[in-house]
Here is the input.
Amino acid sequence: MSSVSQLSLRRDPVRLLLSRGLWRSVWYLLAYLAVGWFLFAVAGCAAVTGAALSVTLAGLPVLVAAAATVRWCADVERGRLRPMVTESVTGYYRQVTGSGIVAQVRTRWRDPATWRDIAYLVGMFVPLVVLDCTVLALWAVFLAGITLPVWYWAPWQTVHGVRYHGYDLGYHPNGPHGPGAWGLYVDTLPKALLVAAACLILFLLFNYVLVATARLHAAIASSLLRAGDDPLREAKEVLDRPGPLAIRG
Here is the structure.
């Protein structure tokens, strides 16, 4: 089994911030929000189209192409996993036995590796994209909060003909000092610095959550896209080893 090696949590917050693991995690999650949609659409359409046409003989070539498309999508995700794991994630697919299009369809769609690819690309897409979006959104909010002293004065609202400048962290329907309000209305530099300091602390701590999320995502992808071991792997390793009569230079 491969393990996520690049994303270590054994660092203090400042070292974690400056580590490559954090920014590799950010890129991995961000890229999934773009690439994941594409692979979900391609793999999902291929599987659905193949299933819809499988009732006819004309649909058999489509089933073969659909399986190849799903495998290509899985290979794209395996490529994205390379910087995240200690060992390359490669899937074992059954070799087609027999001749003809029917043999290809039977082998490819009875292969557990194909269904594990679909489970990740299609079945896990919604929960993973929701998780990644939520974590990245909170991380970005804390990051933006650190810069609040630079732009807190820019937002404004008009209440009863009076214009108030400041960033509303709460609900102030009658202005920053009116009744029925809750939260903090950041309209001075000291308030902005206070909020920025709090966001800095939360940002440094939330980096651990982001890295842990990337580790979880990579672990799920690795476990599904690995698609089992080659049943002949041990035999192949024995055959590849030098025998007792091998010539030694």
Q: What stands out?
A: The longest strand covers residues 167-171. The CA atoms of residues 230 and 236 lie 10 Å apart. Residues 142-200 form one domain. The chain has a mean pLDDT of 84.
